[in-house]
Specification:
4 strands; 9 helices; globular; alpha+beta; 45% helix; 202 residues
Length: 202
């Protein structure tokens, strides 16, 4: 199904955000999501973000040990179809990022990230991150911003080269096309083939 999602092109138009906001802002943030996106269902889950040990940072905010920060936030998972227009999709994702920060929250980094690099490091502690990279001799590896940011240029190029098809671009046909392409590609057989391989005796 993962391959089908990507073959269909639906993943390019989905909003995939996972954010935490302080409990006192949760109702206002929910109302904003309802009025702006109308994406349901929403995932709601309390998440502990402040720890009392210096090496137990979770990832939702730079100042984990700061007693003025809330210990627990409400996590919102916002996953659902967005607009087909790519510029509007980017605008909405950036709006979510901005609104979360307005409410004193932050994003988990497996969500889609549309930040500029400057915006990203205002939300996450670069000095602490760089210190960890240095400590474990990882300075030469790509940084976390490069790993999580959405490659907007690649997405735009893909959008421009994709062959338009009136039926293929409409839901649910878009999803069915993805399932068909994944099935034709045979990816679902890979695990079966792996299991059928004769075991080598060393």
């Amino acid at each position: 199904m993962y391959h089908a999602l990507h073959k269909s092109g639906l993943s390019d138009t989905y909003i995939i955000q996972d954010v935490g906001v302080p409990f006192e802002a949760a109702e206002a943030f929910y109302e904003w999501l309802h009025e702006t996106l109308h994406i349901y269902p929403l995932w709601l889950c309390p998440i502990r973000v402040r720890r009392y040990t210096p090496d137990a940072a979770h990832g939702l905010h730079a100042s984990f040990a700061d007693p003025s920060r809330p210990e627990v936030m409400l996590n919102f998972g916002v996953w659902g179809p967005g607009p087909n227009d790519y510029n509007e999709l980017v605008r909405l994702n950036r709006l979510i990022e901005q609104k979360v920060h307005d409410f004193g929250g932050n994003k988990t980094l497996y969500a889609q990230a549309y930040y500029t690099e400057d915006e990203f490091w205002k939300a996450y502690s670069k000095p602490e991150y760089d210190a960890v990279r240095s400590r474990y001799h990882a300075d030469h590896l790509p940084g976390v911003f490069d790993k999580v940011k959405v490659d907007e240029a690649a997405k735009k190029a893909k959008e421009q080269t994709r062959m338009p098809s009136a039926l293929r671009e409409k839901r649910p046909f878009q999803g069915l096309y993805g399932v068909y392409k994944a099935w034709r590609g045979g990816d679902y057989l890979l695990q079966k083939k792996q299991l059928e391989k004769p075991k080598q005796v060393l």
